[in-house]
């Protein structure tokens, strides 16, 4: 869930094709941004709009992400034919990168578009070791196979790597790929880190 989703409006419920293929179920997603609720005069109107949105939803399960201020309202809403499952919280933070010694010219940090494809295997190993046994909204859902949770993160990162390698930043230590981040440049705006991981051999080293 990108920052612009958090502060924006409400999105339509859309099918997540990658997740649907991975888990063998029809999975939908939608986001509620903080600005969305401001158009309603009352909490009841906002609640009714949510009910109408879900009335036509035919997905086996739908991943809904909402601002923390709406959690109480969501919990008090009776979504017909749906069971609500609270599965975690996303925390957003920001930092000024110029306060740190992040020097792309040093060769220790670079985007994947500068890498040979035969080195992608190292990136895959970083993803596997970073997200093995990772607890998230996949593992919390009894309808999904927990052994596919790690694969889902990996497959999504693979998709970005294969199609937009300039949005994958890798960090090298001792001549090896130690970590990576999948970023969203936001067309000249703030760069968002959508996913990041450190290889097991390089974890807990500061």
What does this protein structure show overall?
The structure is a single chain. The chain is α+β, with helices and mostly antiparallel strands. It has a four-stranded antiparallel beta sheet. It has a three-stranded mixed beta sheet with strand order 1-2-3. The two termini are 27 Å apart.
What structural class is derived from the secondary structure elements? alpha+beta
The biggest beta sheet is recorded as: 4 strands, antiparallel
Question: What's the helix count?
Answer: 6
Query: Whole-number average pLDDT?
Result: 79
Binned strand content: 15-25%
Radius of gyration: 19 Å
Please bin the fraction of helical residues. Answer: 25-40%
- The first-to-last residue Cα distance is 27 Å
H and E string: HEHEHEHEHHEEE
The assembly state of the depicted protein chains is single chain
Query: Which sequence of strands runs across the widest sheet?
Result: 4-5-6-7
Q: Which word captures the global form?
A: globular
Number of strands: 7
Return residue spans where pLDDT drops below 50 for at least 5 consecutive residues: none
List keywords for this structure.
206 residues; alpha+beta; four-stranded antiparallel beta sheet; three-stranded mixed beta sheet; 7 strands
């Amino acid at each position: 869930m990108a920052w612009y989703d958090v502060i924006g409006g409400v999105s339509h419920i859309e099918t997540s094709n990658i997740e649907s293929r991975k888990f063998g179920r029809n999975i939908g997603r939608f986001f509620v941004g903080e600005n969305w609720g401001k158009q309603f005069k009352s909490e009841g109107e906002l609640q009714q709009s949510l009910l109408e949105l879900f009335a036509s939803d035919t997905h086996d399960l739908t991943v809904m992400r909402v601002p923390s201020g709406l959690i109480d309202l969501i919990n008090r809403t009776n979504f017909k034919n749906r069971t609500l499952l609270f599965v975690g919280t996303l925390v957003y933070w920001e930092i000024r990168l110029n306060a740190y010694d992040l020097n792309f010219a040093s060769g220790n940090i670079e985007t994947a578009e500068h890498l040979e494809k035969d080195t992608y295997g190292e990136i895959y190993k970083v993803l596997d070791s970073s997200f093995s046994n990772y607890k998230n909204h996949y593992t919390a859902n009894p309808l999904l196979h927990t052994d596919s949770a790690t694969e889902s993160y990996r497959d999504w990162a693979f998709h970005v790597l294969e199609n937009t390698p300039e949005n994958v930043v890798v960090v090298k230590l001792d001549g090896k790929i130690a970590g990576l981040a999948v970023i969203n440049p936001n067309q000249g705006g703030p760069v968002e880190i959508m996913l990041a991981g450190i290889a097991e051999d390089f974890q807990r080293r500061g």
